[in-house]
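Q: Could you fold this chain for me?
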Amino acid sequence: MAGAHSVRVAVAQMTSINDLATNFATCSRLVKEAASAGTKLLCFPENFSYVGDKDADNIKIAEPLDGPIMQGYCSLARESSMWLSLGGFQEKGSDDAHLCNTHVLLDDAGNIRSTYRKIHLSYKESSFTKAGKDIVEIDSPVGRLDPTVCYDLRFPELYQQLRFQHEAQVLLVPSAFSKVTSQAHWEILLRARAIETQCFVIAAAAQAGKHNDKTESYGDLLIIDPWGTVVGRLPGENWLIIPNIS
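A: Sure. Below is the predicted structure, expressed as structure tokens.
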């Protein structure tokens, strides 16, 4: 990973709503806080930029990666000189009825270095989301990062492939897990993936709390070491946790 040196990684937990500007302001604040602490990588949750009241709302605001929404986050990365893990983003799909749930990794110059489109879809996602096909990895100041998204967590073979075919060191699992399933399965699955692969797992960032009258996320942000030990934890909303990874 980062050799003998500790690397500062920040993980954000937030409650996104159906307002792009409000969510961007929250992310901007968290970026500034992380930058002031000397962070090298800041991880945001699934749907960091927007959570619609209806599926159609997400499709309506979906943009290509070179659109103004993602370019705003590229500017945040560049201005803070920090890598950003943004997963997943509502990327415009190949037709007007679908989007891609895309985990985007930005480097500290604001360049898009990697994109992973969520492979395993849940919670009726398949009705408006196109599943991805490819797994990816990217070398960073923190080590080799392998992005996934939320429901992917339930498929251990994906993480085995990332570790033993792609030499993963840090597994990223941004999420918006539902409250009921998270209370039963969230920590167990994350610790299992860490132990099985002998990787750090950043369950990045989680959405937390009520987004609207119909949608509520669990909000139990966890960072787990290769032994399966929880080395960072944060319940609640709109906060940041900054451990050292070595």
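A (continued): The domain at 7-245 is CATH 3.60.110.10 (Nitrilase/N-carbamoyl-D-aminoacid amidohydrolase).
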